[in-house]
């Protein structure tokens, strides 16, 4: 059973085919990368899969159920979580509270119990904070637990977003250019985090321009060009594909 299936997906913006009759599947328990030149449609594809955009045609299935047209919060409740190219951190909150934001789908938000801080609410919040602290440790941010977000280095904020996404307990985690703006050391730290996430049983799909990262951590790679599938396969297969080399990769060490 595939975790995610995209069938004949298309998206037009004013007659421009950003995604053009695209089909592929994502198997559970793997790391998938989506690569391609700027303008290839990678982020548009993410926005279609996660409900930010509605496709012009085609459909998306998650765990064999049609989810085309579902809202992002509905997909999050089903087990799909994502990060964005640009940081979406609440800079006026602590690092831990940022991760807690990602936990809201699993918390009781009823007004009166929360207002009066009933014992089960206190117990629930304590358990949630403990879990979010563990997630921060998982992504290597245990020392930043009580930091204000606006005091944290950029590379740590990137990993903080991943911890927040993990707080919703996703089955599928989509990362949109997680290594953008990172130096080589920070990128290698992120490699280790993504591998750890996948080893925990969460399927990871990332859009990324860092070819060293893509080739190092991916089980499967999908290559887009002008919204169409140019190639897909293992890193070794994609590396040797002449169409990919001509369109995008060049010589990858």
Briefly, what CATH class of the largest domain? Alpha Beta
Computed Rg: 19 Å
The largest beta-sheet arranges its strands as 6-7-8-3-9-10
Number of domains: 2
Per CATH, what is the topology of the largest domain? Rossmann fold
CATH superfamily of the largest domain: P-loop containing nucleotide triphosphate hydrolases
Order of helices and strands: EEEHEEHEHHHHEHEHEEHH
Distance between the termini: 35 Å
Per DSSP E runs of 2 or more residues, the count of β-strands stands at 10
Number of helices: 10
Q: Extract low-pLDDT stretches.
A: none
Determine the structural class based on helices, strands and strand pairing.
alpha/beta
Please give the share of residues in helix: 25-40%
Average per-residue pLDDT, rounded, comes to 90
Q: Looking at the structure, what is the overall shape?
A: globular
The appropriate CATH architecture of the largest domain is: 3-Layer(aba) Sandwich
**DSSP strand content:** 15-25%
Major sheet summary line: 6 strands, mixed
Describe what this molecule looks like in 3D:
The chain has 253 residues and is of the alpha/beta class. It has two domains: 1-79 and 170-253, 3-Layer(aba) Sandwich (Rossmann fold), CATH 3.40.50.300; 94-163, no CATH class. The protein has ten helices and ten strands. It has helices at 42-49, 72-78, 95-101, 111-115, 119-138, 154-166, 184-199, 211-217, 235-240, 242-249, and strands spanning 4-13, 16-26, 31-35, 57-62, 65-66, 80-82, 172-176, 203-207, 220-225, 228-233. A six-stranded mixed β-sheet has the order 6-7-8-3-9-10, with helices on both faces. Strands 2-1-4-5 form a four-stranded antiparallel β-sheet, covered by helices on one side. Helix 3 runs parallel beside helix 6. It is globular, with a radius of gyration of 19 Å.
């Amino acid at each position: 059973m595939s975790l995610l299936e995209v069938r004949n997906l298309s998206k037009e913006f004013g007659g421009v085919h950003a995604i053009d009759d695209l089909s592929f599947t994502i198997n559970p328990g793997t790391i998938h990368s989506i690569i391609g030149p700027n303008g290839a449609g990678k982020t548009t594809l993410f926005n279609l899969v996660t409900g930010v955009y509605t496709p012009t045609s085609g459909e998306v299935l998650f765990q064999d159920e049609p989810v085309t047209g579902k809202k992002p919060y509905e997909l999050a409740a089903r087990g799909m979580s994502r990060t964005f190219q640009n940081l979406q951190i609440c800079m006026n909150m602590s690092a831990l509270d940022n991760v807690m934001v990602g936990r809201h789908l699993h918390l009781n938000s009823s007004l009166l119990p929360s207002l009066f801080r009933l014992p089960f609410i206190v117990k629930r919040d304590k358990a949630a904070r403990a879990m979010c602290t563990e997630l921060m440790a998982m992504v290597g941010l245990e020392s930043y637990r009580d930091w204000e977000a606006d005091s944290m280095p950029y590379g740590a904020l990137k990993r903080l977003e991943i911890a927040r996404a993990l707080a919703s307990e996703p089955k599928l985690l989509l990362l949109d250019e997680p290594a953008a703006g990172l130096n080589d050391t920070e990128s290698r730290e992120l490699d280790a985090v993504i591998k750890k996430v996948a080893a925990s049983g969460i399927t990871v799909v990332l859009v990324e321009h860092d070819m060293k990262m893509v080739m190092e951590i991916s089980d499967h790679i999908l290559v887009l060009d002008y919204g169409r599938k140019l190639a897909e396969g293992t890193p070794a297969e994609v590396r040797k594909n002449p169409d990919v080399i001509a369109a995008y990769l060049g010589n990858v060490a």
